[in-house]
Amino acid sequence: MSKGRNLFNASMTPIVKSSTRPKWQRIPKRNVFYHKSPMHRGHFVLSFAFNFDREDEVYQFALTFPYSYTRCQGYLKVLESRAEHLEGNFCRELLANSIQKRRADVLTIGSVPKRAAEKRRVVVIIARVHPGESPSSFVCQGLIELLVSSHAIANTLRDNVVFKIIPMLNPDGVFLGNYRSSLMGFDLNRSWHRASPFAHPTLTAVIELLTAIDKSKDYQLDFIVDIHAQSTLLGSFVYGNTYDDVYRYERHIVFPKLFANLADDYQPNNCMYNSDSSKIGSARRFFCANLNDKINTYTFEVSLFGYKLKGSDTIIPYTEDSYKRCGRNLIKAFLEYYQVTGVIPISPTQELKKKRPRRHRSPSSSNRTRPNTTRIQAPIHYKDINIYYESESDADEPTFRYKLSPRKSIFRDHRSSSPPPQTIVVLPEPSLSIIDFNIITKADFENATRKSQKDGKVLNET
Predict the structure, then answer these.
(1) What H or E segment, with its residue span, contains residue 197?
(2) Within its chain, how far is the Cα of 102 from the centroid?
(3) Global confidence as pTM
(4) Helix, strand, coil distribution of the chain in percent, nearest 5
(5) Over the stretch 209-239, which tens digit does the pLDDT of each residue have?
(6) Which of 71, 59, 68 is nearest to 177 (CA)?
(7) One of 84, 301, 336, 390 is an active-site residue; which one?
(8) From start to end residue, where is composition biased (Basic residues) (predicted)?
């Protein structure tokens, strides 16, 4: 909150809801102030004005959309009870207990054959290392919902890849309302290189799990993605590593490029690849240095506020659904990666869609001018129209109600049959008279005029 570089300088505001208005809403920018305070040693201070319009209401304020430990456990319990359709492709296990004996679960999604000719690919996803970064839980829930669905993408990935997902790695910090630390005050994403069973039980459990997968003869660990939320930058982006091996680095940047083509909120300018020694305790740097060279480790970041549309400076705030969409985009990127690398074969229909040539017009055909045509109304056949006089209309100025005669249907309804409408007047087909003005005389014209007037009087009398 006291950082000079903060999203509050980019029009971000806190959110609020009440007991009768349960939907989170952002406080207007004109009522929010983020400034340096001399009374707080020059640190930045957030203040806002709010009017409590109802006395019996309970109001709640938050930095971003909350995602509690209770909500996570309830979601996993419901997910476990409804995963029968996966037929053994879903498993919820206890990874470790926290210091205060709260659950840190691990989900296994994907088929695990007893004997396979090739190693089964494994993707590990970690979320909520920092308790205050609740958008990471929404991103994680979004990718879980896609993986357990009956979508074709989910079915393909479950048949070829095993996903190990840890939805909440710091349950004590989330329960206590900490922003970045655990129960004992440790930043877990700076403690991977010095994790101990006493102070970091969840970290040691993850290290043991990934080490066992890395040494297994049946699995090949491909990805480790640590999901975080960003308080200073907009959009979604990736932090990666740099390597002395050029080929390994080129292989490392393939996945972020595939994700960039799928996500509208991706900000490539915020991406960073480094080997910073100050981040040696992060998951990205630790597993890169301690596991085999084939593993790609990333930190996936998503903004606490919103993202900019491509080619525009308009900021669109994130919602719970848009955070979940980020998770679904991650899963789609995994599918494209494994198709590009040949792990998952591409179906013939997909190849035809990708290789379908575009039709190019020849220069001669593009220069052709279309003929000048006019739009005319479609002719109306009066035999198909029945005219009814309104019963309450004036006799001098009659109004008409037009009704098209019903079309014949191939389905017959024997239960109800309405009588056909009574026809009062049916207009005949219009006829066309041709007059040759080259041979007509003045006397003939006067005779034709008198005849037409006489015929009109006869029609009015009838």
Answers:
(1) none
(2) 31
(3) 0.75
(4) 35, 20, 45
(5) 999 999 999 999 999 999 999 999 999 999 9
(6) 68
(7) 301
(8) 353-362
Size (the chain), residues: 462
Helix locations, 302-441, DSSP H: 320-340, 348-355, 363-366
Residues 6 or more apart whose Cβ sits within 8 Å of residue 331: 143, 146, 147, 153, 154, 157
* In the block, residue with structure tokens 């034709």: 448
User: For residue 41, is it left (φ>0), alpha (ψ between -120 and 50) or beta?
Assistant: left
Rounded to whole angstroms, how far apart are CA atoms 203 and 226?
13
Q: Which CATH superfamily is domain 69-344 in?
A: Zn peptidases (3.40.630.10)
**Which residue reads 């494209």 in tokens?**
336
Give the span between the Cα atoms of 108 and 85, in whole angstroms.
Answer: 15
Distances (CA, A) of 230 to 108, 233, 300, 372: 27, 6, 10, 58
Residue type for position 230 = Q
162 bridge partner residues:
122
Looking at residue 158, its amino acid is R
Q: Where do we find the tokens 């098209």?
A: 404
The single-letter code of the amino acid at 295 is: I
How far is 128 from 170, CA to CA, in rounded Å?
6
Q: What is the pLDDT of residues 408-454, one digit of tens each?
A: 433 334 444 444 544 444 445 444 444 555 555 666 667 777 776 76
Distance separating the N- and C-terminal Cα atoms of the chain: 91
Half-sphere exposure of 171 (CA within 13 A, CB side): 23
* Torsion sign over Cα 403, 407, 409, 415: positive
Domain boundaries, the chain: 7-62, 69-344
